[in-house]
Design brief:
heterotrimer; A mainly alpha (275); B mainly alpha (287); C alpha/beta (367); A: 275 residues; mainly alpha; MetI-like fold; B: 287 residues
Chain lengths: 275, 287, 367
């Protein structure tokens, strides 16, 4: 069987899976978001009795959604950038230098992920308050998220640094490339997928992180997860939750497409794969 | 390898902004949590040193059952996510028409907040949800079945895998794409089948990515709260759930005991998973 | 050190507050009102119906020229914020709302200002259902647990009223009754009261000792004997939604919560609410002012306004809550006064803790 034919078959199989994977849940979300407030969608009906955009309009006009979108989508890229910058040296050391205790260091890097939720919420934010970081609340949230999600950026970048090939570095050195040039030629191609993955993960995690954003930010700074937790908690209204969910997913998908284009402008398997 | 003082200094300097910051800030917070489990940092009364909280907790069946259940969810979620992601990553290694679209589609769940995912899922499997309606319409089931909060945590495992498989895919795609064609071609020329190629070349060369994926997913799923509360079995409690239960009742030290257990299990479990993955892969290569 | 800092800060603020609380006179209160106007802003952290409450406080904002900010947050997160910024001076929270039951998890004397400097009001019900709110917390939102039922399948006459009725209902209609054991107090209210009825124990007055635990055993046995015929749900909201979806017929719930979901078009209007004869517990939400509030005078003014007879009548009219001021009009409540008389008090905290824990271990986890 040719590779092309195999791909075609797999493609169809995958499309079928995607229906279950994405189309059903999102299709249901779209239907729920269109339920008219005056006519609840009861279980005995296959489709909502009346459709309207009123929930969308109401959500857009009468909630803090716009402010939250702006805050969250400014905060998350900054947190991702800061987290990656902080992670870079550590990931380089753990990925390229063989030193005793390296495995333990790799394990210790995971600590922020291991801390239980309420401990982060109460003790970590209280530490931030005590350090006096909250004079600039927005900055404090960015910093806190950058630290909390360091495990993702460090561990992902370690993988990338391990993939950098020694012969590339040596070739660059032999050709007399200066430090920066060497980085650009030998390291960057191998690091690209890692940078993409780490940026995306830290970005998404900081968009989703509720506790710190709320405890440090409220009441002055509203962020998306506060709206989400509020609408999915006690006052849970499915159509409103659906509207909010759909609004939140769209910018994320655009961002991913953008990042993918930006960082994979050259095919990494070609740029780093061939010796 | 011999490390000179200068080399050590370089390593220390490099580790400072990342690991150093983690140890300073998160270390302090962990210290607070650990001492809280021994009676300090009481947020609703006097702080007194005491081993009682641990002693009482270790005496409870409630506690052990939640440890057991959380380990079950943690390990299976990590294994399922990675096992599903591997073949997809290998398939997507070399770009073809539509591969980018597929990659994006597969990664989409990453972008859906966990809470939203759980509610979408509950919607689908609800008593009068689309699955029940479909099965009834097809005549497979006589009446609606209660699928919500199933006994074995299958819903939680599905949700965890749904949410985490893309993460594993993201890591593995990068690693698998980094493997040069020469090596794989050479193996193919030597008559190695696709499974042998996976065992002997792909797995060892992407080991680090696999370990990272396994460990990070394990830690997240071990501490699962939102999926468990919404979709999990009502006759089981995850450790986070137990912890929040105690915390909500002002029993800070009990909550801290569960929290510290969670941390210790997460670290030990991560180490064990990483070592197991390496042994498995290395073992294959020796054979 | 944390503790020392905290005590120091607490003493400092308490000292300042005591000064104004020491000589409560009309004049003093006038000064507080003037100061409140000067502060011009108050942050009210409340965990439910925030949209509606923002609308509800508009008359207050207009009357005093004080902006009320109600941030989006859950009960847990509000409490975590309160705790994490307890050493901060000043904090962000001016008025803090929590279920009266939940305040038990906080060190209220260390965290909050005593409220005796508010103008005296005989009618104020500081505590509801035997729970001591002390003078640090005032109840402003009375609510009641009971049972929500689907009128399209059950007539009023069919509603189970006693333990025997429930046993019969469960046997005749397996899988049609559900309750939550966490994420909301309605389920616990149901099983605590029903266990008391089965075992013949008065949960409100029973002592928290081994003898009581012993005599409650028939209650646990009752739930275990019928375990296959009832459903355990995930939360208050999950229960109500599953009744509205037709999956369940009867579930414990909160009257104000049900009304709120109905008003938003999430739950069918033909779901109704009753309190069974063996009684179910009433509760309330309270307001308190953190010691490090940045706008303490405005906070005091808001608390005073929320608990006043007129505003309590208005709460009753708009949300159907049970007024927390004796001088208020309670004609708009969701349940009749006959049924309201079946409202019981929660068991003491010392009793409730071991009973609930045993229920989880021997009933829930054994399913």
């Amino acid at each position: 069987m040719s590779q092309q034919r195999l791909n075609d078959i797999l493609l169809f199989a995958l499309l079928a899976v995607c229906v279950v994977w994405l189309v059903i849940p999102f299709g249901m979300a779209i239907l729920w978001s269109l339920v008219d407030p005056a006519a609840p969608w009861t279980a005995d009906r296959l489709l909502p009795p009346a459709l309207s955009f009123s929930r969308w309009i109401d959500m857009w006009q009468n909630s803090s959604l716009k402010a939250a979108l702006i805050n969250s989508y400014t905060q998350a890229p900054l947190a991702a950038a800061l987290s990656l910058s902080l992670a870079f040296p550590t990931a380089y050391a753990l990925g390229r230098i063989r030193f005793p205790g390296r495995e333990i260091a790799k394990l210790l890097v995971l600590l922020p992920l291991v801390v239980p939720s309420y401990v982060t919420a109460v003790f970590f934010s209280s530490l931030l308050f005590q350090l006096g970081l909250t004079g600039w609340k927005f900055g404090a949230i960015v910093f806190a998220h950058a630290v909390l999600f360091l495990p993702y950026s460090i561990r992902i970048l370690i993988v990338s640094f391990e993939q950098v090939r020694d012969d590339h570095i040596e070739a660059a050195r032999d050709l007399g490339a200066v430090f920066w040039r060497r980085w650009y030629v030998a390291y960057l191609p191998a690091l690209r997928p890692g940078i993409f993955a780490a940026t995306l993960i830290v970005f998404i995690k900081s968009i989703e992180m509720f506790a710190i954003a709320f405890i440090v930010g409220s009441p002055d700074i509203v962020m998306i997860p506060s709206l989400l937790f509020a609408s999915l908690g006690q006052d849970y209204v499915r159509p409103n939750a659906a509207v909010l969910s759909l609004i939140l997913v769209v910018p994320n998908i655009l961002l991913m497409l953008f990042l993918e284009r930006l960082l994979k402008s050259a095919n990494p398997s070609l740029s780093s794969g061939k010796g | 390898m011999q490390m000179t003082a200068k080399a050590w200094a370089k390593v220390a300097l490099l580790l400072a902004p990342g690991l150093g910051l983690i140890l300073a800030l998160i270390g302090t917070v962990i210290y607070m949590a650990v001492t809280q489990s021994f009676g300090y940092y009481n947020l609703s009364g006097e702080s007194v040193f005491s081993l009682e909280h641990w002693a009482e907790m270790l005496d409870r069946r409630l506690y052990f059952r939640s440890v057991q259940y959380s380990l079950y969810i943690g390990v299976l979620s990590a294994v399922f996510s990675v096992a599903l992601a591997y073949p997809l990553a290998i398939w997507l290694r070399k770009p073809f028409a539509g591969s980018m679209l597929i990659g994006t589609l597969l990664k989409a769940p990453l972008l859906v907040p966990g809470l939203v995912a759980a509610f979408l899922f509950i919607n689908v499997i609800a008593y009068h949800g689309i699955v029940n309606q479909l099965m009834e319409a097809l005549g497979i089931w006589d009446g609606p079945r209660r699928l919500q909060n199933d006994r074995y945590g299958i819903a939680v495992l599905i949700l965890q895998t749904w949410k985490n498989m893309p993460f594993a895919l993201l890591l593995l795609t990068g690693a698998v794409q980094g493997i040069s064609d020469d090596v794989l071609d050479a193996a193919r020329d030597m008559g190695a089948g696709s499974f042998t190629r996976f065992r002997k070349i792909i797995a060892p060369l992407s080991l680090s990515a696999m370990q990272a994926a396994l460990v990070i997913i394990f830690i997240g799923a071990l501490a699962d709260f939102s999926f468990q509360v919404i979709a999990g079995p009502t006759n089981r409690q995850s450790m986070s759930q137990l912890m929040i239960y105690f915390q909500g009742h002002g029993r800070w030290h009990d909550a801290a005991v569960v929290g510290v257990t969670l941390m210790v299990l997460a670290l030990i479990g991560s180490a064990v998973l990483a070592v197991l993955a390496r042994l498995l892969v290395r073992g294959e290569r020796v054979r | 050190m944390l503790r020392k800092l905290l005590v120091a800060a607490a003493l400092c603020v308490a000292g300042a507050a005591m000064a104004s609380a020491d000589d409560v006179s009309a004049n003093e209160w006038d000064q507080t009102v003037a100061q409140a106007r000067e502060e011009g802003r108050v942050n009210w952290f409340v965990w439910y119906l925030r949209d509606d409450l923002r609308r509800f406080v508009q008359p207050f904002e207009k009357k005093y020229g004080i902006a009320v900010t109600i941030p989006e947050g859950t009960a847990d997160a509000n409490a975590q914020k309160l705790l994490s910024e307890r050493d901060r001076e000043p904090g962000d929270i001016d008025v803090f709302t929590y279920g009266l039951n939940n305040f038990e998890s906080l060190d209220i004397t260390a965290l909050f200002l005593p409220l005796d400097f508010l103008p005296e009001d005989e009618g104020r019900l500081a505590s509801v259902s035997g729970e001591d709110g002390k003078s640090y917390i005032l109840s402003f939102w009375g609510n009641q647990t009971g049972i929500a039922y689907d009128t399209s399948v059950l007539a009023q006459a069919d509603l189970p009223q006693t333990a025997e009725d429930f046993a019969r209902f469960w046997t005749e209609h397996p899988g049609k009754f559900g309750f939550n054991y966490e994420n909301g107090g309605s389920g616990p209210s149901f099983y605590l009261n029903l266990m008391g009825a089965v075992a013949g124990v008065d949960m409100t007055s029973a002592a928290a000792d081994g003898a009581t635990m012993q005599s409650l055993q028939p209650g646990y046995d009752f739930f275990n004997a019928h375990a296959d015929n009832y459903v355990v749900t995930a939360s208050n909201a999950d229960s109500i939604i599953r009744v509205s979806d037709g999956e369940l017929w009867l579930v414990p719930g909160w009257e104000d919560h049900l009304a709120g979901l109905q008003n938003r078009g999430e739950v069918r209007k033909d779901i109704e609410f009753y309190i069974p004869e063996f009684g179910m517990s009433g509760g309330s939400n309270g307001v308190a002012i953190p010691r490090n509030a940045a706008h303490p005078a405005a906070a005091a003014l808001l608390v005073h306004w929320l608990t006043s007879p007129e505003v309590q009548s208005e709460f009753n009219r708009v949300f159907g809550t049970a007024p927390m001021n004796a001088a208020s009009d309670d004609s708009a409540a969701l349940v009749s006064n006959t049924q309201r008389s079946r409202s019981t008090a929660w068991p003491s905290d010392e009793l409730r803790k071991p009973v609930e824990e045993k229920f989880i271990e021997t009933v829930i986890l054994e399913r």
